[in-house]
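User: Here's a structure from my thesis project, written as structure tokens. My advisor, Dr. K., wants to see whether a designed sequence matches the one we expressed. Can you design one independently, without my sequence as a hint?
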């Protein structure tokens, strides 16, 4: 009898920090819970903040789609190949975790470029695509240095999370679970010293949620 194909866990990180990243630590919790269920599973990792795409990749990919192939420069072909490879990675994954640290009240430009490149692949297009990501389980991890929780003065200033949630859950149709951690800078910012115990509670709760969602991810698509 043929062996079962190993399950694939795709992990896409967007922190620009090499270490001490809260979103990386939370993604580790998701991954550990998933690996406990799939010890022979395959982990595919992309750290977008540490290995960014060429700055003009998306421009070439988006323009290539609107030009006759005979007019393409080598850069157009390379960008289309890159986008196809990225789309294949998400399509082939059984479970996906994406981290989205808040930078200047929005998502990182590298994460945006990753999504923009995915959207150039016809299979993932909302206009005539084949919806290959529908119902695929995904965890989105959002980390924010400040406090954007309900009732806080900065409530509504996170302009990135609503966008990324809409793309993955509504455009791609993925089964998205969210983990949010606010006040991540309280530990290192003296001006936030009074908020440290709240920050710790938030972090502990986020890790519990990450572990729970990691277990849910390991069960695979519901439908
Ligand atoms: C350039 C830069 C801009 C940032 N902008 C914001 C911001 O607008 N709002 C906020 O709450 N935190 C902001 N932060 C803090 C990060 O959101 C916070 O450190 C978060 O934990 C980063 O994720 P990580 O720990 O996974 O690296 C910023 C950090 C950097 C380096």
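Assistant: Designed independently from the structure alone:
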């Amino acid at each position: 009898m043929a062996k079962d194909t190993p399950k694939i866990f795709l992990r896409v990180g967007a922190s620009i920090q090499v270490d001490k990243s809260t979103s990386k630590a939370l993604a580790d919790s998701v991954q550990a819970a998933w690996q406990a269920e799939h010890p022979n599973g395959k982990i595919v990792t992309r750290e977008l903040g540490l290995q960014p795409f060429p700055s003009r990749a998306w421009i070439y990919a988006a323009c290539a789609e609107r030009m006759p192939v005979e007019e393409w420069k080598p850069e157009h072909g390379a960008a289309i190949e890159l986008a196809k490879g990225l789309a294949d990675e998400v399509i082939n994954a059984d479970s996906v975790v994406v981290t989205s640290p808040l930078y200047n009240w929005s998502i990182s430009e590298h994460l945006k470029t990753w999504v923009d490149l995915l959207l150039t692949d016809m299979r993932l297009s909302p206009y005539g695509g084949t919806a290959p990501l529908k119902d695929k389980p995904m965890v989105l991890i959002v980390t924010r240095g400040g406090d954007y929780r309900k009732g806080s003065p900065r409530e509504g200033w996170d302009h990135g999370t609503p966008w990324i949630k809409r793309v993955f859950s509504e455009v791609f149709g993925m089964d998205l679970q969210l983990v949010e951690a606010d006040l991540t800078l309280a530990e290192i910012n003296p001006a936030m010293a009074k908020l440290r115990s709240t920050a710790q509670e938030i972090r502990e709760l986020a890790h519990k949620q990450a572990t729970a969602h990691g277990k849910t991810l390991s069960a695979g698509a519901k439908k």
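When you compare it with your expressed construct, this may help: The first strand starts at residue 8 and ends at 13.
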